[in-house]
């Protein structure tokens, strides 16, 4: 068998595949099994078989924290010094000057094509939402969600800075736009003097609109920034019952140990869902000219998991001022998260942080390899974790609705017209 092409016969039984045991509800790490593709689903029973020679199989991945509206602006708006402030300034200027509906649509389409070719089945994207960008980007998002239905399930969360939040200013109209599109209410939190009250008011507004919440939190190396604790306390105080996602949470890793662990205890009690963005945080955090970084930027994922906190990993930014690289490839995210966060030697179910955990945080259908589940799969020639993470798996097979897709990545040259002077 040419690994690149499966027989075009259905039903088809994939014999001798390697599967993380946790995905089949079994104890242990990796196990050999078989899967049948039948009428777009994982089936049972006899079928023509092909020996997969130990190839690893995963359900389609979930990428729960992305920025499809920012993607691929790096060639025209690079980060001048690789810092967080450099990213904010460059991205803000590009948005003000260039983010028409056509521009956002083209770049969003490019990212979705890449994600689909790499094997992602569901994505939550943040959309910068300072008016008038909120109306522009959510309208484009609605078009993309309809166009990609059946291939990638899409959600959108608005994104504003905490200083732009109020219940009687422009954000109130933004919140209505989010609600009209079935979105998620999102905000960046940092230690403003009145940030605790802003968070409580934000949650009350989300509750009144029937929306869940998604925060960018403490994306800094400042140990004094602990809005993570304030969000957890606000959830407990207000009784907010919808899912609350907190992303980044970088500063908790540089706090005094006792302060950090006490914060995580409150996070666990509040039932927050954490998403770590190791690639972007490795790129931005602790970057100082002429100085080697002293920490990796990643949050305390092991301590969180030990407390029963739902932890996921995601792509975050792609080729924009916040992260100059990336390709919406969740196998790359899984590989680098494993290396950066030492996920190896620490449990056999971390793969769920790219599958069921983000599904639970966002309300997506849980990926599964059990009979009756959609036959949406990613198959890699690797037979073990070390083989999987040693190479990019560029020859992977992606199955959608039981059929192998043509894995065509978009050409960067397609974006060249967008990079010309406006």
Automatic annotation (TrEMBL):
EC assignment: 3.5.4.1
Which GO terms label this protein's molecular function in UniProt? cytosine deaminase activity; isoguanine deaminase activity
Query: Which enzyme class?
Result: hydrolase
**Origin: domain of life:** Bacteria
Annotated GO biological processes are: cytosine catabolic process
Q: Where is the Amidohydrolase domain?
A: 50-130, 196-404
Keyword Hydrolase on entry: yes
Fetch the InterPro entries from UniProt: Amidohydro_3, Metal-dep_hydrolase_composite, Metal_Hydrolase, Metallo-hydrolase_Enzymes
Which CDD domains does the entry link to? Bact_CD (cd01293)
Keywords of this protein's UniProt record, alphabetized? Answer: Hydrolase
Residue spans crossing the bilayer: none
Family annotation (NCBIfam families) = PRK07583.1 (NF005759)
- Which protein are we looking at? Cytosine deaminase
